Amino acid sequence: MGKEVDYRRRPMPKQLPFERVRNFDEVALGYPPEVAREEASRCLKCKKPACIGGCPVGIDITGFIERIVDGDFAGGVKKIKETNALPAVCGRVCPQEDQCEKVCVLGKKGDPLAIGRLERFLADWEAASGATERPAMAPPNGKRVAIVGSGPAGVTVANDLALLGYDVSMFEALHEAGGVLTYGIPEFRLPKAIVRREIEYVQSLGVKLHLDFVVGKTRTIDVLLKEFDAMFVGAGAGLPWFMGIPGENLNGVYSANEYLTRCNLMKGFRFPAYDTPIKRPSRVAVFGGGNVAMDSARTAIRLGADEVHIVYRRSREELPARLEEVENAEEEGVIFDFLTLPTRLIGNERGWLSGMECLRMTLGEPDESGRRRPVPLAGSEHLVKADAVVCAIGNSPNPLIAMTTPGLAVGKKGNIVADEATGKTSRDGIWAGGDVVTGAATVISAMGAGRNAAKSIHATLSGT
């Protein structure tokens, strides 16, 4: 007889809500080794594992899971790093429930295997052990590649090409590397020491990092192409969207980019130890329902707001944020105002936000996104008090690179047009991927685009 199938996922230890709302320490605490091995042993070792196909970067999931079961943690790390340079990041912030875990066979009758948590376990074990595992590297091939941006897409391209023997340089506009991992995702969800460690690993492969280098200002793409054989643009989507309603120019109205950058990159949550002042309002409204909205709301709670509301025009069922992040926000006291649409912001005589007018909504037929379209209810206007608003409804790429690179095709929202399978743009020698192409999306989708681009760059430069 075979072993009995275990359909019960092992829970992740985490800080209690009443404790974590008073600090910016990581909420989820990770599996201890014995629990990781128990969870890994649930794997059915499928002959044709669907989980690998569900991973945008094609990690050999069953391979690293098997090594956890055997207690070969170093081997598990090495297996992951064959295709993923950021396991500690992916294990924390990737939406596994919509990718590898979604297609896990165990999920048909119970809980899918906790693949993301096990990936995080191995990455954290490696950090604690002090030993760095890395796959074999090809000898130098004499080719040079420049990468714009040091976020998930750029780091993935850098990693993959460095392993293939390329001389790789990353150019980062900010004073710290990591892109959205550094400026966007809060400390309590992704500690910045982890991001720095992952970047340092890629640098250990020989990748050069140039900080405070604004491509398009410091030097243009065309100037850099005189020194490099190929260019990958992974500059992200740093241009915030607003709703276009009256009052958005009032004091106390932030984009999520500014709000989170002040806290994360510029350490505003540690003021006055860091010289970045940040307003600590009493009643905060966050517009949007994605992970960035959850990050903003949970940050506001930790900064001491008395009341924080997520204002979302659809219902709970349509929330695009990860279920785990929604549950964490609810546990921490965030209030959800579903089927609510802000129509104007109201200020006091000194130009500071004091409230907003909203409409109640109902859901009609599905729109192009597949979600039911919100429809205003006539006569449902009402006033709500608020002394801060964070707009977290999306982003577009900064137009600087497109404006300074003749012949580079861009879409209606300023995104660089690139082939989905290869990352090739309208210009020879230039590839692009991640949020600069798709608009704001997930870390792992950006990494998948980076892997595809790296393969295409290698095929082009090597003539294979």
The biggest sheet, with number of strands, parallel, antiparallel or mixed sense and barrel status, is:
5 strands, parallel
Sequence of strands across the biggest β-sheet: 3-2-1-4-16
Based on CA inertia axes, which overall geometry fits?
A: globular
Q: What value does the Rg take, in angstroms? A: 23 Å
- How much of the polypeptide forms β-strand, as a percent range? 15-25%
Provide the CATH topology of the largest domain. FAD/NAD(P)-binding domain
Query: Which stretches are low in confidence, meaning pLDDT under 50 for 5 or more residues running?
Result: none
CATH class placement of the largest domain: Alpha Beta
DSSP helix count? Answer: 17
Q: At the fourth CATH level, what is the homologous superfamily of the largest domain?
A: FAD/NAD(P)-binding domain
Number of domains: 3
Sheet/helix structural class: alpha/beta
Percent of residues in helices comes to 25-40%
Number of strands: 16
Termini Cα gap: 49 Å
Tell me the CATH architecture of the largest domain: 3-Layer(bba) Sandwich
Mean pLDDT: 94
Brief rundown of the structure:
With 464 residues, the chain is an alpha/beta fold. The protein has 17 helices and 16 strands.
Question: What does this protein look like?
Answer:
The protein has 464 residues and is of the alpha/beta class. The protein folds into 3 domains: 17-129, Orthogonal Bundle (Fumarate Reductase Iron-sulfur Protein, Chain B, domain 2); 144-238 and 396-462, FAD/NAD(P)-binding domain (3-Layer(bba) Sandwich), CATH 3.50.50; 242-393, FAD/NAD(P)-binding domain. The chain contains 17 helices and 16 strands. It has a 5-stranded parallel sheet with strand order 3-2-1-4-16. The protein has a 5-stranded parallel sheet with strand order 6-14-7-8-9. The longest helix is centred in the last third of the chain and has 20 residues, at 443-462.
